[in-house]
Amino acid sequence: MSELQRFSMSIDGGSVGSEYFSVINPATEKPFAEAPSATKDEIDAAFAAADKAFVDWSVDDEARQIAMRKAAEVVTAHVDELAALLVSEQGKPLADAIGEVHGTAAWISYFADVEIADKEYITPGEVAQVRLPLGVVAAITPWNYPVIQAAWKFAPALRAGNTVVLKPSPYTPIATLRLGELLQDAFPAGVLNIVSGGDEVGVALTKHPTTAMVSFTGSTSAGKSVAKAVADDLKRVTLELGGNDPAIVLDDIDIAKAAEDLFWGAFVNNGQVCGAAKRVYVPESIYGAVADALADVAAGVKVGAGDAADVRLGPINNRAQYDRVNGLLESAVAGGATVRAGGNRVGEDGYFLEPTILTDVPAGSAIIDEEQFGPVVPLVSYTDLDAVIAEVNNSKYGLGGSVWSADANRALAVGRRLRVGTVYINGHAINHGPHVPFGGARWSGIGVENGLAGLEEYTQRQIIYGNGADL
């Protein structure tokens, strides 16, 4: 009998699990809990339950709102429990984990209460537009913000009238599984089903014949696989994928004032954010000063286990990502880059790496051209702003970008030239809440999440010609 605590999947309003795998705490590199690995029969049961529940759930918006408000209250009542699980499986500091859980409740509350028009007139009295739910949505979430990313998907999907089968990352399934257990009494059986397991479970969700839509957040390579998997059946799909966001510093920046915000725009959640700044372009004339300022910030950041006092950055989440980030760092240094700050492992156990600032990185280095998704950021010197903009726009990625200047309007003029999904002025990786749509261009995704635009992704537009009927 395993001594590790086992968590259950939520299928048809009940707790389920038959086969299990261990989940590693990235701060210790040791297992701390066990999660179920869904079998084919369990996956089929989840979809059957969701399909059955869709019949009543899809036609009663008032009941959906009541259930979602209750769900938000349940999450709020269990913030400490869910946050502690997040720290153990994801590694982030406790304060950040608490913030994520509170954000989860806020997302559910927003979609519970957002005003949705029953119909929109195209020609008053004659032609109207309505939005219909799609059916059963398969949602697949990543390991960097597992709980709130679950709400990003199931909250708008449920409010739109769909039912959901959701799968968290195998690196971070525990808090999401517990969330599912807690919400079993908030939603009717079958409305929200949460299963867990490896990549094969995700593939089964995308290819399941009952799936009407797939909502996926993760790497670009995995997103391409999802797109291929749904193509034969022409399932609806939204993909929120990787980013290689630039932060472009202009020559009039107030370095002392901006350094802290610029640093955290890159190192938020240990750099494990699709929309974080992944490369910083700095005018040659102030390159050294900006590098020194960012290095000073990095030197003052405490790295350690998320439940330790005063920790600002935890570990990289998993061994594969730790090895990838270190590989990119070592390759850059071998190619001539200078480690201006950080670059060292912290402690003997855990996937810890100091926040690392690189300078003098040769053009064409992988650390510039690829998404590192970790606490290493290259500074790139430039003399031609137009060339920087062209480089950014020629990238295969287009999630976001930021421009930094003492003159916000000057920064805005540059930002408007970037072909990306989100532009930040004197900030980066800012999220103002569930009402703001989020999505990327090119390899960074298809569709948007959040806001009414995000909710509409989970619907089918229907045009009605009344021909005398009371529209």
Question: Which SSEs are present, and which pair or pack?
Answer:
Elements: E1 5-6, E2 9-11, E3 14-16, E4 20-25, E5 30-36, H1 40-57, H2 61-77, H3 79-90, H4 94-113, E6 120-123, E7 127-133, E8 136-140, H5 146-159, E9 163-167, H6 174-182, E10 192-194, H7 199-207, E11 211-217, H8 220-231, E12 236-240, E13 245-249, H9 255-267, E14 277-283, H10 287-299, H11 319-334, E15 338-341, E16 356-359, H12 366-369, E17 376-382, H13 385-393, E18 397-398, E19 400-404, H14 408-415, E20 422-425, E21 441-442, E22 445-446, H15 451-456, E23 459-465
Parallel strand pairs: 1-5, 8-9, 8-11, 9-10, 11-12, 13-14, 13-19, 14-17, 16-17, 19-20
Antiparallel strand pairs: 2-3, 4-5, 6-7, 7-23, 12-22, 15-16, 18-21
Helix pairs in contact: 2-4, 3-4, 3-6, 4-5, 9-10
Explain this structure to me?
With 471 residues, this protein is an alpha/beta fold. The protein is built from 15 helices and 23 strands. The strands form 6 sheets. It has a 7-stranded mixed β-sheet with strand order 15-16-17-14-13-19-20, with helices on both faces. Strands 10-9-8-11-12-22 form a 6-stranded mixed β-sheet, sandwiched between helices. Strands 1-5-4 form a 3-stranded mixed β-sheet, with helices on one face. Helix 4 runs parallel beside helix 5 (146-159). The N and C termini lie far apart (62 Å). The mean pLDDT is 94.
